[in-house]
């Protein structure tokens, strides 16, 4: 005969059955979209390459500015997971892209849907297991597309490509 304490608890087979049913309910959720970067302006007042050398020739001895040819400026993007210390090397986990040469040392471009020269688009898709969402919930977890103005300076310019 069972003790009174054991009567109210579900047995092991019932617990295993519940765990199996929960596991079968898990689904794979996917998301896709695109990362889009549009270059609107660039300022390289000294006409220097990424490594600090002049794009065309030597520096002016008086003011130490590059004096000859302008740089041929293009941009490269490498989308990676978060890094507390950004490095130029390593794989681009979520994609990479570049623009053709789009200007010299300093330029301003207009935002235009028809001009793709100054735009880098990286499509992405992800899939991960989820166990469902609240019943009746139809809210999107991803906000509507937004535009941000990011003045890139310092370490962020390490990916800037300049040709001689």
Automatic annotation (TrEMBL):
It comes from the Eukaryota. Keywords: EGF-like domain, Membrane, Repeat, Signal, Transmembrane, Transmembrane helix. Transmembrane segments: none annotated. Residues 1-30 form the signal peptide. One of its GO terms (biological process) is Notch signaling pathway. Coiled coil: none annotated. Residues 32-130 form the Notch ligand N-terminal domain. The keyword Isomerase does not apply. Pfam families: MNNL. InterPro entries: Notch_ligand_N. GO terms for cellular component: membrane. This is Protein jagged-1-like. The gene is LOC111814962.
